[in-house]
Design a protein that fits this description.
alpha/beta; Rossmann fold; five-stranded mixed β-sheet; about 20% strand
């Protein structure tokens, strides 16, 4: 009986570890590379001038309950403190969106006049709620987690043969009010 209990416990531990690994969310493209590419992508939105007058508010969607999410958020903030992100002469202002503490995401995005969001790795959170709001309120969505593209995120990043690949869901981007230049669409992987 003791031997059976030990085997059951071992199986449970293996299952628990495997389950957690299967939900791991990886960012393939280093954040320093993403930070250089994001302003270029934003500047290739043909609707940029109609979309925004003045500064650009970039919401960083994260959870204070998840270490990886916090690390990406911290990297974003530290990078923007060191050097402003500029898009077509507009400064990009970071706005922190902690899903662990915000109860009404739509109101928070509207109150903070969010123009674009970057979604960090988030486990156990339904990001479809966020993507639905992005479509309704014309907020461009970006992420470094390629797997999130199945949740209707507009832009992500991948690495193919050691080269950066911008991945765009152009249908979602259009629903979010973005019209990317044909130049960007030619070099991106469209899904």
């Amino acid at each position: 009986m003791k031997l059976l209990k030990k085997h059951i416990i071992k199986i449970q531990i293996v299952f628990f570890v495997a389950l957690n690994l299967s939900y791991a969310q990886h960012i393939k493209v280093p954040m320093d590379v993403q930070m250089k590419i994001i302003p270029k992508i934003l500047s290739l939105d043909k609707n940029f001038k109609e979309r925004k007058k003045g500064n650009y508010n970039l919401g960083i969607v994260y959870s204070s309950k998840q270490r990886n999410s916090m690390q990406i958020k911290d990297y974003f903030i530290n990078s923007l403190e060191e050097k402003n992100m500029i898009v077509k002469k507009s400064v990009v202002n970071p706005v922190l969106i902690n899903l662990a503490k915000i109860t009404n995401i739509k109101k928070y995005l509207q109150d903070n006049k969010i123009d674009v969001i970057y979604i960090t790795p988030l486990r156990g959170i339904d990001i479809n709620i966020v993507t639905k709001i992005c479509k309704e309120d014309k907020i461009l969505s970006l992420t470094g987690v390629l797997d999130f593209m199945k949740n209707d995120i507009s832009v992500s990043f991948d690495v193919k043969e050691k080269k950066l690949q911008i991945v765009i869901n152009n249908e979602t981007a259009k629903q979010e009010g973005t019209k990317f230049s044909s130049r960007l669409l030619r070099i991106a992987k469209l899904i």
